[in-house]
């Protein structure tokens, strides 16, 4: 089962909103201030998030929704990610580098082969220790906030800027 189904079940049971009506934090407007005239940061419809930490994946999902992404599938392993891309079409993917069970570099190369854009998410602050053929891939450093996500997406899709 994809994490996104578990997330949907969980979020339906959690009341929304916070005192004062601000349920996403005061900086959430940063992502809504898109460079394309307010139509969202990008035109991506479906995104795959490969992340073994459900909390981090859910935070990324919230931020991606603020940019206009309509559908986000969260998976926790390379096997689930391979099954997801075999079943669905994705506009791009976010890949956690270290999945506990191993690294996501092999899957990243597969995405390159089939033409799905992607970026890495990692607690490591640079790509210097990544394989040489993947050092050019945009990196979102954990922990990240809305501004960091927006900057990362602009690096991933520079034509939007």
Can you put this structure into words, describing what you see?
It comes from Rhizobium chutanense. This protein is 36% helix and 14% strand. The protein is α/β, with parallel strands linked by helices and 161 residues long. It has a 5-stranded parallel β-sheet with strand order 2-1-3-4-5, sandwiched between helices. It is globular.
Proportion of residues in helical segments: 25-40%
Report the sheet with the most strands, covering strand number, pairing sense and barrel closure.
Answer: 5 strands, parallel
- Superfamily (CATH H level) name: Response regulator
For the residues shown, what is the average pLDDT?
A: 80
What string, H for helix and E for strand, traces the elements in order?
A: HHEHEHEHEEH
Domain Response regulatory: 46-157
Organism: Rhizobium chutanense
Modified residues (4-aspartylphosphate): 96
Protein name: Response regulator
Structure in a nutshell:
Residues 46-157 form the Response regulatory domain. This protein is α/β, with parallel strands linked by helices. Helices cover 36% and strands 14% of the residues.
